[in-house]
Amino acid sequence: MTVAPNMGSRMAFIGLGEMGKAMTRNLHRDGNLTSPLTLWNRTKSTADAHSADLGGDCKVAETVQEAVENSDIIWTCLQDQSAVEQVFDSVFAANVNITGKLFVDSSTIAPEWSNATAKRVIEAGGEFVSMPVMGEPVVAAAKKLICIPSGKPESVDRIRPYLEGVVCRAIVDLSGEEPGTSSLLKLMGNFLIMTTMETVAEVNVFADKSGIGTKNMSKLMGAMFPNPPHAIYNHRMLTGEYYEGTPIVEVYKALALTGQVLDMAKACGASVPIYEVAREHLKLVQEHEGSKADITGIYGAVRVKSGLPYRNGAAEGSSNQKE
């Protein structure tokens, strides 16, 4: 379904982590916005710097209330559920008039909290779409996220013009479903991410230990799985970015999320042993490298469990791989 953009919409984006920066960069460049994009971040200097990076024609709000008051669409992408709660509590505490305003939340939060927030917003006269996204910041930068919107169809339609070809490559459309449905599906998506990461880590260690070498394994993986996420995880692991680069997700955040997914699996009686193994490897990453280590350090954990050093030496240029 194609919907024409609401040419009168004023948009605010709240939350400028690496994902938020990538998404706003694409919205600013390709979203056909007719009003300056409003930015707000808890650390204002981050918003100021990002506005300058975008060309300086964005508005930086002093407060989240100001961002909401001066916008028709408020898009949030925050670190965790606690941050989302703080933002919405702040808006409601300030008695901001949200009648007719659309809130779109791309944070990863519990399904029941998405439903509760939607109810709160709708009862106050606003609209709410839960729209978590699948993909890492590098995927977001390339406009290749997967967006999972749920909520009232007419509300989803308001945000649709800013999705495919702007911030994402595909939409998993859950229009008409409760907002919490997309949050639940995002948690299921985390299962796919973690098990893929675990597979890439294990097969590379297996290749190293067997003597075939990770370079040869990369040739096979590139032929079989040339696209993200396999390609991204494989690159980070083999180049040493899993310990040298900027984390795509810090391990303490991943442990919190995977714990939530495991609780959900246990509650419904699902057996997820490969996911449990991946989470145990995340714990080893944190023990070895600290809470802010990268999630792809799973590769280092599997290496340690296989009798290899945590770090593969790629950053120093060492290699014992066979061509």
Automatic annotation (TrEMBL):
UniProt xrefs under InterPro entries: 6-PGluconate_DH-like_C_sf, 6PGD_dom2, 6PGDH_NADP-bd, HIBADH-like_NADP-bd, HIBADH-related, HIBADH-related_NP60_sf, NAD(P)-bd_dom_sf
Record domain 6-phosphogluconate dehydrogenase NADP-binding: where: 11-165
Record SUPFAM superfamilies: 6-phosphogluconate dehydrogenase C-terminal domain-like (SSF48179), NAD(P)-binding Rossmann-fold domains (SSF51735)
Keywords: NAD, Oxidoreductase
Listed Pfam families: NAD_binding_11, NAD_binding_2
Family statement: Belongs to the HIBADH-related family. NP60 subfamily.
Name the UniProt record assigns to this protein: 6-phosphogluconate dehydrogenase NADP-binding domain-containing protein
Organism of origin: Aspergillus aculeatus (strain ATCC 16872 / CBS 172.66 / WB 5094)
Upper classification of the organism: Eukaryota, Fungi, Dikarya, Ascomycota, Pezizomycotina
